[in-house]
Amino acid sequence: MSTPYRGRFAPSPTGPLHFGSLVSALASYLDAKQKNGRWIIRIEDVDGARCTPFFAQQIITTLNSYQLYSDEPILYQSNFSAAYEAKLYELKKQLKVFPCNCTRQSLTKHNGHHPFICQSDTSRPHSWRLKSCQQSYEYQDPIQGRLLFSNDLEITSPVLKRKDGYFSYQLAVVVDDHQQNITHLVRGADLIETTAQQLYLYELFGWVTPSICHIPLIVNLSGDKVSKQNHAQAIKNGNLHTLIRALHYLKINVTNATSINEALILATQQWNPSKLISIDKIKLEEQDQDLI
Ligand SMILES: [Zn+2]
């Protein structure tokens, strides 16, 4: 018997849910539901400096208003620091990480290279970085096709634990997905660049890599990602029009749906990732300007 499908949507609560993240949430939800899988919400609040419980609750409320409910209790990354510490310790023993007290300025000065001295004084605040690996990674993305990551370009010593003591997304996401037995990741194409680092971590931990598929990124009229950084606003809760328009960017047409419930049922039938093949960006249409 094959492993049961387990998918997830894992937002960072640094702001309210915006249109771009609704599209991502829907893609992961529809993929899971169409394959009779479980869909799990996980709150990626590992960055305690930027995430707030207020936004976490607001995101969950908004998802639920679109009838996107987690099939299992919602986990919060901030509760799992001990697990991340344990994995970091393992990497330290394998000599796959190094302490670094470089500042952004000193890295720029050395063209991104770490002068040996950065690793010698661990009495000063330091981060822990993954050592570069020389190998290339090739990955077959069900939507984006063959992705080739040739190192060292892609794996540039990412930080796993920051100077301020917080763990990075890179480490946390791999540990969490493994602990929750996630089998399928459906996420935005902006995360393609982090894939090689994650594949490398899976390899170091000896874990099976989940299927990873990247859906097109919604970009605004100036070509920038619809994101919190680009001031995307909160979407309305439980708004059928917003849902129909979000599904439109996944090549799903449910304009005749009269309720959110009906729209989701029709969308689950229509979801066909092969319609998105090789598309990494979709420009937001003029009529949807007021949704972001
Ligand atoms: Zn350094």
What's the gist of this structure?
By secondary structure, this protein is of the alpha/beta class. It has helices at 19-34, 53-65, 81-93, 104-109, 169-179, 192-205, 240-248, 260-270, and strands at residues 6-9, 38-43, 75-76, 97-100, 127-130, 137-141, 145-149, 159-161, 184-188, 211-215, 217-219, 281-283.
Secondary-structure map:
Elements: E1 6-9, H1 19-34, E2 38-43, H2 53-65, E3 75-76, H3 81-93, E4 97-100, H4 104-109, E5 127-130, E6 137-141, E7 145-149, E8 159-161, H5 169-179, E9 184-188, H6 192-205, E10 211-215, E11 217-219, H7 240-248, H8 260-270, E12 281-283
Parallel strand pairs: 1-2, 2-3, 9-10, 11-12
Antiparallel strand pairs: 4-5, 5-8, 6-7
GO molecular function: ATP binding; glutamate-tRNA ligase activity; zinc ion binding
Keywords: Aminoacyl-tRNA synthetase, ATP-binding, Ligase, Metal-binding, Nucleotide-binding, Protein biosynthesis, Zinc
Organism: Marinomonas transparens
